[in-house]
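Title: Comparing notes on inverse folding

I've been comparing how different people in this forum approach sequence design from structure. To keep things fair, I'm posting one structure and asking everyone to reply with a full sequence. Here's the target:
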């Protein structure tokens, strides 16, 4: 818990009617990074040449997708599980809309003489299986991450922020990876089982490593937001059902 005389410890239920100065900005950042990670990096398998190991494949989305989990940690830590839940559902709906509009744009008949259709299909042509896997993994992983962090905050009485940001990421990213890769790529001809397992393992390790490396940034952002909002929210007696959006 951040020691600051201006910060008031309150239950999440007492935050419902209180205006939040920065919540909207954090939510927008969360949704934007989520959408970009699914447009740019979800389906590409890249490779890096590691010393003593050789070439090791990894998913390109690892470059920035884990930041959405960091922001998810900030949302839960600063604003409570209820508001984080609303952000997760906002991201879920935004992903569905993105998928639908991508399908519409790709299916629109191209004008005569326009040569970009094949490139559009390659970049924005959504593979239904990957889309379904991505949405399911995001939904389950983010809710697991948020619930673990919120409950750990109560258990630790707000101390040792790093234990709950890293601990919740281990659970959330584990759920995400274990769902996404098998759902998306098992049996796919260009994703042999050994490559999929390597990518899945490397993705999990790298995602958790991102969380560890960004811990000082998380501390700084959480401290800034708590001081500016003037509250430290605890999810005591919170309904942790993911199937609701009310605060």
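Reply #1:
Here's my take.
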């Amino acid at each position: 818990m951040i020691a600051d005389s201006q910060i008031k410890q309150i239950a999440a239920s007492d935050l419902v009617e209180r205006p939040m100065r920065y919540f909207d900005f954090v939510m927008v950042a969360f949704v934007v990074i989520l959408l970009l990670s699914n447009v740019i990096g979800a389906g590409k398998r890249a490779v890096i040449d590691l010393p003593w190991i050789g070439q090791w494949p990894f998913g390109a989305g690892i470059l920035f997708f884990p930041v959405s989990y960091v922001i998810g940690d900030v949302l839960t830590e600063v604003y409570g599980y209820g508001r984080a839940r609303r952000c997760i559902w906002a991201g879920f709906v935004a992903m569905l809309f993105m998928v639908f509009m991508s399908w519409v744009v790709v299916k629109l008949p191209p004008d005569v003489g326009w040569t970009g259709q094949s490139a559009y299909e390659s970049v924005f042509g959504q593979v239904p299986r990957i889309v379904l896997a991505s949405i399911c993994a995001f939904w389950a992983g983010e809710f697991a991450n948020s619930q673990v962090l919120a409950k750990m905050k109560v258990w630790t009485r707000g101390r040792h922020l790093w234990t709950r940001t890293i601990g919740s990421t281990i659970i959330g990213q584990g759920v995400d990876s274990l769902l996404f890769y098998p759902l998306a790529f098992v049996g796919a001809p260009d994703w042999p089982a050994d490559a999929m397992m390597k990518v899945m393992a490397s993705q999990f390790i790298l995602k958790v490593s991102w969380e560890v490396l960004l811990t000082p940034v998380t501390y700084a952002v959480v401290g800034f937001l708590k001081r500016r909002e003037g509250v430290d929210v605890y999810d005591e007696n919170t309904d942790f059902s993911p199937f609701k959006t009310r605060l």
